[in-house]
Amino acid sequence: MSELSVNHLLGIKYLNKEDVRLIFETADHFKEVINRPIKKVPSLRDITIANLFFENSTRTKLSFELAEKRLSADVINFSSAQSSVKKGETLIDTVNNILSMKVDMVVMRHPNPGAGVFLSKHVKARIINAGDGAHEHPTQALLDSYSIRERLGEVKGKKVVIVGDILHSRVALSNIFALQLQGAEVMVCGPKTLIPKYINELGVKVETNLRKALNWCDVANMLRIQNERMDISYFPSTREYTQQFGVNKALLDSLDKEITIMHPGPINRGVEITSDVADSKQAIILDQVQNGVAIRMAVIYLLASKIKQ
Ligand code: CP
Questions:
Q1: pLDDT by residue (tens digit) across 190-206?
Q2: Given CB 3.0 to 4.6 Å as the disulfide criterion, which of 131, 189, 225, 282 pairs with 213?
Q3: Where are the domains of the chain?
């Protein structure tokens, strides 16, 4: 198969195993490109992409913009904070106004779950979901799996624990779908209050004891507490959360094996992860960020090739 089964990247749940394989193979090629002295290819000179960010971002926004520029696409950036959204303009009106300037593809981060799906039904452009509320963050999950493949050889058969605020995390949901699609075993670990009630329907293991979870896994993906999505307290205090669910070097050194540590960022140093772990060779956090550019180049390239048909 040399093309994606989908016209938009709205979530991992819409992809199949072959799509993931194709994205990784294409990312392998682009990873080689971005390590050359000239880090650019002319592939998308005829494509214009709008990056619409209705929510804060550092990594995802910069990574998409860099990926688009490395592919020679024309790029426009929109941030809701400085826009006419503040004057009451709807999402569809905002996007249709941008599309009337002949935009081919939209990368969107939005606080509302399903915003990307909604948009894909109302506008004529390829849509890439760059994070929709607590729903999905597909390119994050793809770059996470790609980084596991790079560090451990393959994803199939690996045991991955996702630790922390599972309830409010789009990274957790997209990772569960992506890892299972590739044949990995998935566990979630965190306070009971931060594990969604529907978790058993997703076919993952659940553990509330971090030491047991770390002893089980090959990879631990540490999540931050999403305070911006919480209107009540889900645990007594940050200090107690860290005592029970934070990783530190002493804990990792006391395990029988060396595990790989991941984090999607932004990190809250000293809360879910200590600096001596985040900055250690066991952690692949900056590899994840680096791989994000190649993965996003692959996704954009593969979706753009469907526009050109
Ligand atoms: N991992 C991630 O989505 O980071 P940003 O919120 O900075 O984009």
A1: 999 999 999 999 999 99
A2: 189
A3: 12-136+289-304, 138-285
Asked if 229 and 247 touch (Cβ cutoff 8 Å), the reply is no
Which CATH number is correct for 12-136+289-304, 3.40.50.1370, 3.40.30.50, 3.40.1380.10, 3.40.50.970?
Answer: 3.40.50.1370
Could you tell me the two tokens for 299? Answer: 């996704």
> CA angle at residue 223 from 276 to 70, to 5 degrees?
90
Before 266, cis peptide (omega within 30)? yes
Query: Which protein residue has the closest C-alpha to ligand 1 atom 3?
Result: 60
Q: What pTM does this model have?
A: 0.95
Distances (CA, A) of 72 to 32, 104, 197: 16, 14, 45
Q: Considering only CA atoms, which residue is closest to atom 5 of ligand 1? A: 57
Pocket lining for ligand 1, CB < 6 angstroms = 57-60, 131, 137, 140, 264-266
- Choose one of 57, 226, 267, 289 to mutate for the ligand 1 pocket test, by most ligand atoms within 8 angstroms of C-beta: 57
Nearest Cα to Cα of residue 225 among 158, 270, 160: 270
70: tokens are: 């490395």
CATH superfamily, region 138-285: Aspartate/ornithine carbamoyltransferase (3.40.50.1370)
CA distances from 38 to 130, 194, 294 (A): 27, 45, 15
Over 80: is that where the pLDDT of 83 sits?
A: no
Which residues, at least 6 apart from 259, have a Cβ–Cβ distance to it below 8 Å?
Answer: 214, 217, 218, 219, 220, 252, 282
